[in-house]
Amino acid sequence: MDRAPSPEVERLTRRNAELERASDELRSFVLTATHDLREPLRTISGYAQLLVHKYGHTLVGDAANLLGDIVDGGARMSTLLWEMLAYAEISARPDRPRERVDLNAAMETALQNLRVAIDESKAVVSRDDLPEVCAHSSDFVSLFQNLLANGIKYRGESAPHIHVSVRCDDGELTFAVADNGLGIDPANHHEIFEPFKRVVTSEVPGTGLGLSICQSIVSRYGGRMWVESEIGEGATFLFAIPEEQFLLGRKAGSAEA
Fold this sequence. Notes:
This protein is α+β, with helices and mostly antiparallel strands. It has two domains: 83 residues; 158 residues, Histidine kinase-like ATPase, C-terminal domain (Heat Shock Protein 90, 2-Layer Sandwich), CATH 3.30.565. The protein is built from six helices and nine strands; from the N terminus they run ααβααββαββαββββ. A hairpin with a 5-residue loop joins β6 and β7. The protein starts with 6 loop residues before the first helix and ends with a strand.
């Protein structure tokens, strides 16, 4: 005869159900609010850019600076809303079917999305031959794109050089995205993965959500993420995912973009 759950188990079950419901409601609110805010922001940014186009040449001093601040602020807010939407959508549909994804193709898509930034910075991006995974292609495009963009944004005096490698360790496939940029103080290694947390100069544009998005994607696949870096010595972002997530391991090769 089965024993009835204890009051404590029942209480914890109810509490977990309440937390899941609250989490779903919060996620739904963020998704809705982000979508709804984009339209008025588009209007504000559009009118500000129209003012610049029509009257920018007549403005001087504080008026020109203030209008420039409005345009820049609109652009930053637009980027922030897009990244908030991406952050919320990561866990919005956890049960959607996965597909066979060639990570080399995901990497190429990320490179194409960053082509302007790569060309302007004269960045060199090289990589090992990457495996295939049972996943969502958009997750790994976003993951690679955010990590590569970091290597380009936080560059030093030299042109960015970024290498993506992979190795197999104790049942995990560990990926490393290494750059030759500014580097990160070891004291800040953990907090940089927190949402909206930035530990670099404010002169470098960013929202502080990119690495949080990366960590959430890696966690979705049962993995973990960390960084190895010193100030002035570049940074290597690593993420490890259980080997059983992967469909095909290839011998390491190399490619360059």
